[in-house]
Amino acid sequence: MRLSVIGCGYVGLVTGACLAEAGHEVICTDIDADRIAKLKAGQVPIYEHHLDKILTAAGNAGKISYTADAGEAIRFGEAIFICVGTPPRHDGSADLSAIDHVAQQIAAEARSPKLVIEKSTVPARTGIELQRALTAYSRGGNGFRVASNPEFLREGTAVEDFFHPDRVVVGVEDQAAAEQLHEIYRPILERRFTCPVHTGKCPDTQKAEFLVTTISSAELIKHASNSFLALKISYANAVSDLCEKLGANVEEVTHAMGLDPRIGTQFMRAGLGFGGFCFPKDIQAFISLAATVGVDFEILKAAERVNKQRIDRFLEKVSKALWVVKGKRVAILGLAFKANTDDIRFAPALEVMRRLLEEGADVHACDPEALEKAKKQFPQAHFHEDPYQALQGAHAALICTEWDQYKKLDWEKAGKVMARKLIVDGRNLYTPAKLREQGFEYVSFGRE
Ligand code: UGA
Question: I want to staple 74 with a disulfide (CB 3.0 to 4.6 A). Which of 67, 109, 279, 398 is the partner?
């Protein structure tokens, strides 16, 4: 099928690339002409595992193309995926101006009926507004149909998540839209693609369910899922605080809890809390949406509050260990909001860095992927590619992202170059006893 993708961020590019790999003909467009120029030149503007491989293969097979001309992209596809940003406004609600802008473009540029699919994360009832905008701006013409198809892609494993989803949710108003979306996803559901993640030998897991719902349900499923996961993390963090006070071990507690399949072990890692461009904004947007219909989503407000307090708790541990922070050289290991991404949006590490700089610490940071982005925001900090250089002369090592490279760090070697053998671990990466055996003072979350 001919498909258009509007917005070449990580959701749009992964969607376009994977659907092209699955055999569709895809055109991608973006308001950022530089980004399109890079893509045309074979460069991938974001770091996402496996994405470069599939974009190259799809490009060579002539299945994917790029244009800075939104009109050209809109006219090409039988179905159009809207993958533009929905950032938070100052009151926490989602800013839908990019969706509105795209609706006006589609209404003006389309010359034939289109299925317009919202993939961006949007509050419930956006589909209704989108349909209204398309009808109004096209003056009732062109027979647009709207659908919602939320993404459940985690940054860093987005390609794997796209090819191996737990569920494909489509919110539609009519059977024809459901059938069209089923056709789009058929190669994924039937696993008819070359999997770049498992090099053709995908694990024999259960195939994804294709769920047809109303548009409002589909929109709500996305916000409710992300908010629930955020809530789960905050719950684990609250339990972790309690463990510290009562002398228990949060890992023993969450592991045992998680073995109950009703609870599950995932998203129970205590530490610095959640960041990124999804959970913090989605939880706020969900609270805000609920408020507009008179529902006080208190439980989510508490989850958000617990998450914000993680930074305070971490910095309290740093201050307690260092006694005086001013003038101390501290190494921050990890800037990205989580491992395997270069994304630093709402990353806890950045807030830690900002507050330490404010206190007068001499901050030396490193990250395998996010250095360039962070450098622009913090001209007063020092940045290193090599963690051992960041640790040179440091009075403390602060672990802020759960990168594998840091899990495997040679602390024997690091200890020799540090001014003080102190680790404050915001991601519980190490076994306390092991580091203490190596002569480190080691502080983490929810474990003695
Ligand atoms: C999240 C969801 O997991 C995806 O399903 C969803 O599609 C995506 O948002 C989205 O809305 O686009 P993502 O933001 O990429 O994906 O990251 P996660 O892997 O969910 O992690 C979010 C944050 O929670 C990270 O900062 C991570 O370090 C933190 N986290 C995660 C914890 O603190 N503890 C945990 O146990 C798990």
Answer: 109
